[in-house]
Write a structure and sequence with these properties.
It holds the Pfam family DUF6508. The protein has 7 helices and 2 strands. The chain is mainly alpha-helical. The protein has one domain (13-147). The longest helix has 21 residues, at 127-147.
């Protein structure tokens, strides 16, 4: 089954399919994502990451940058049927597999369109931070392996 067939049928593509769809050419976006991963590691929650105003979340610069970079690298994908699939959870260690990071990036960012605060919730729970860390680490591992 091809990735597009899986998406059309609404089935959850396997891990390899989701990871193969990531855009490795977007080096600048990947490097920015790595910088954001480090920023969130050092300071998981900044006061301006999310401020609620009039019942709506106002996201700070690094949250906006994280969402934009996740989209640019292909982590927000039409391949994953986020509305029908069960949402992956963080592991006991607070980490995610790279494929589950793609699933959650898609769920969180697309979900914000349908329910204000989805990103804020993911931020509060450490999920957004785990998504960014997992994908930045995955890219770094691949990049280092290619340099050898």
């Amino acid at each position: 089954m091809t990735a597009m067939t899986a998406a059309a049928e609404g089935s959850d593509p396997d891990d390899a399919t989701l990871l193969a769809a990531l855009d490795l050419v977007q080096a600048e976006a990947w490097h920015a994502l790595a910088g954001l991963a480090e920023s969130f590691r050092l300071q998981p929650h900044l006061d301006d990451d999310c401020v609620w105003s009039g019942g709506y979340p106002q996201y700070g610069a690094r949250v906006d940058a994280a969402c934009r970079r996740l989209s640019e690298v292909g982590a927000v994908t039409p391949l994953y049927p986020w509305m029908r699939a069960e949402r992956p959870s963080l592991g006991a260690d607070g980490q995610l597999s790279p494929a589950d990071a793609v699933r959650l990036a898609t769920t969180i960012i697309r979900g914000e369109r349908f329910g204000d605060g989805m990103i804020a919730s993911a931020l509060d729970e450490g999920i957004l931070q785990a998504v960014i860390a997992s994908l930045a680490s995955w890219y770094d591992d691949r990049h280092e392996a290619q340099q050898r």
